[in-house]
Amino acid sequence: MSNNLRRVKQAVVLAAGEGQRLKPFTASKSKVMIPIANKPILQYVVEALAMNGITEVILVVGYEREHVQDYFGSGEQFGVRINYIVQKQQIGTGHALKQAKGAVDENFLVLAGDNIIEPSTISSFVLVPPNSVLVKQQENVSKYGVVTMQGGVVTDLVEKPSEPLSNLVNIGIYMLNRKIFQYLEQEVGLPQALNQMISEGGIVTTQETQGVWLDAVYPWDILTLNQQALGRVVSKIGGVVESGVNIRGIVHVGKDTIIRSGSYFVGPVVIGDNCQIGPNVCLFSDTSIGDGVTIAPFTIIRNSVVGRDTSIGPGSFIEDTVIDQGCFVGSHFIARSNDSDIRVDKEIYQVKCGVFIGGDCNIEDGVLIHPGVIVGNGASIRSMKVITENIPEKSWVV
């Protein structure tokens, strides 16, 4: 087997970006650290690399990098060795890769750290020669980069085309060699650098994957990713489940968690460590509960994500909703789901969803928030309020 076809041992993971359109969930952490089924998005990438024998990971970090470094450390507990490189200004994927120039081997894999993948997604791609792009068929390509090709050779990489030039999406995974750095001096985007390589006669090939590739662009995408990730969890009871609890389907309960009598769960559901649930709490499918969460009696939650160290009062009803970490939610809180118009970056999107609540919010008793509302980090809402519009971060609603 030639050197080019040997399985690479080194990967550069681009994890420096913020994720502006995912606010409020990226106001205090980067997109790669958003928890999906109680694991940061980046962890799915690192685990996929380890499962494919890629043990040397160069992690390019930037925005809120301390959270990344504190969580992943040396990488040893994830089966890899991590070398951190800082991108001080987040000005493009090509610029991010260029920061790793002094640390990479002749051939190396490049991945985005903010997309969920599985080991099978890259299992055959790690054997291809450079320079190559991993692609996946998508119905709606307007918010991605597409790849046009002829005879398996790339002719162009087009970012967010106004018309569908191809149904093959560039998913941000590349097999490259050091030649790429010749084209990164003037280009801040990696696709543009590859286009420059092609224009000068370089050959860039593709491989298509049928594996999992999930991208979160907007807050409601967190719910979609959570549903997909929960479809792959396994049942486990790591805490105490009292008699009189009814569990149906796949339910994963973390260590030192207590599930009180009369509670009813329909999986897939993931509950973290050190939680207090119930009595008489109903958790329905596609719900993730983070570590250290308390859910008081007679609360119903379905298809939602609740961040760690959050407390939810009795008699609440929550569906299709994301609540970030460290929130206090009083009794009889209502977050129902319905079709909504949500404005992000001056554009309006029609989405069926509940509400999106940033971290460290304080919501008192009897609050009802209309579907599609976004509540910024650190906001406080007094009792018995009906919220129909977005609440800026650190606001008081009295």
Provide a descriptive summary of the structure in words.
The protein contains six helices and 40 strands. With about 400 residues, it is mostly beta strands. It has two domains: about 220 residues, Spore Coat Polysaccharide Biosynthesis Protein SpsA, Chain A; about 170 residues, 3 Solenoid (UDP N-Acetylglucosamine Acyltransferase, domain 1), CATH 2.160.10.10. The strands form eight sheets. Strands 1, 4, 5, 6, 8, 9, 10, 11 and 12 form a nine-stranded mixed sheet that branches. The longest helix is centred in the first third of the chain and has 11 residues. The N terminus is likely disordered.
Outline of this structure?
With 398 residues, this protein is mainly beta. The protein has six helices and 40 strands.
Please indicate the percent range of residues in DSSP E strands (runs of 2 or more): 25-35%
Helix content: 10-25%
- The coarse overall form would be globular
The biggest beta sheet is recorded as:
9 strands, mixed
CATH architecture of the largest domain: Alpha-Beta Complex
Number of domains: 2
Poorly predicted spans: 1-5
What is the CATH superfamily label of the largest domain? Spore Coat Polysaccharide Biosynthesis Protein SpsA, Chain A
**How many β strands by DSSP?**
40
Oligomeric state of shown chains: single chain
Mean pLDDT over the residues: 92
Radius of gyration: 22 Å
Structural class: mainly beta
How is the CATH topology of the largest domain named?
Spore Coat Polysaccharide Biosynthesis Protein SpsA, Chain A
